[in-house]
Amino acid sequence: MNRNELAKGIYNSSHLSGTFTLRSGQVSETYFDKYLFEANPRLLGAIACELALCIPIGIDVLAGLEMGGIPVATALSLETNIPAAFVRKQAKSYGTCKLAEGAEVRGQNVCIVEDVVTTGGQILLSVAELRAAGAIVEDVVCVIERHPDGRKKLEEAGLKLHALFTIEELEAAGNVEDVALSGEGWSD
Fold first, then answer.
1. Measured between alpha carbons, how far is 95 from 164 in angstroms, rounded to an integer?
2. CA end-to-end span of the chain, whole Å?
3. Of 28, 99, 114, 181, which one's alpha carbon is 20 to 30 angstroms from that of 187?
4. Which tens digit of pLDDT belongs to each residue from 155-183?
5. What is the pLDDT of residues 8-47, one digit of tens each?
6. Exposure string for 153-164, b = 16+ CB within 10 A, e = fewer
7. Nearest to 187 by CA among 45, 36, 66
8. How many other C-beta atoms are found inside a 10 Å radius of the C-beta of residue 49?
9. DSSP readout, 150-170?
10. Model-level pTM greater than 0.90?
11. CA-CA distance, 110 to 35, in Å (whole number)?
């Protein structure tokens, strides 16, 4: 599957038409459900193949952020043989009380893995907590860069964003002009 076919596959599997109430409370006739491409083994495998090329040399751990980054990190781990950690939005208050489950992050070069980057807010929070836990974090990979503000905020925090696709590339591949994918109609 080439890049354009992959972009078209992501768009076609995830773009929905109907009546949807968005997080803002607005009603939209279109919706982009990112979990549909993450749940499709053919697409997720192709995503991992392409996204593996974006992982910088020297990464010890792929850290998938809850929830959408976890399936992507798992697929990337299988593709690259780099161990994965699964990062919670909040450390659990029982058992091991860990923020990151799976591979050890302390002292490791960790690459954050996310499905979609919009504002980068959760990434910045997770990076701060991972660094406090002893991880070395400089890079973020994502499937879709939804808005350039996210890249800007990450760069201001000293992080490098490596995106497989921009939202504009998905729109072009889907050949749809009447859908504003860069708006709020995204699954969360």
1. 36
2. 27
3. 99
4. 999 999 999 999 889 888 986 443 433 34
5. 999 999 888 889 886 667 787 878 789 999 999 999 999 9
6. bbeeeebebebb
7. 36
8. 15
9. HHHHHHHTT-EEEEEEEHHHH
10. no
11. 24
- Give the Cα separation of 174 and 52 in Å (integer): 23
**CB atoms inside a 10 Å sphere around CB 93:** 6
pLDDT tens digits, one per residue of 105-144: 999 999 999 998 888 999 999 999 999 999 999 999 999 9
Distances (CA, A) of 89 to 62, 67, 70, 154, 177: 16, 9, 12, 18, 35
pLDDT exceeds cutoff 80 at 86: yes
Tell me if residue 63 falls in helix, strand or coil: strand
Q: What is the mean pLDDT of the segment spanning 57-78? A: 97
The single-letter code of the amino acid at 6 is L
- Residue 154 to residue 160: CA distance in whole angstroms: 7
Of 6, 12, 5, give the one whose Cα is nearest residue 181.
Answer: 12
Tokens representing 180 are 């504003």
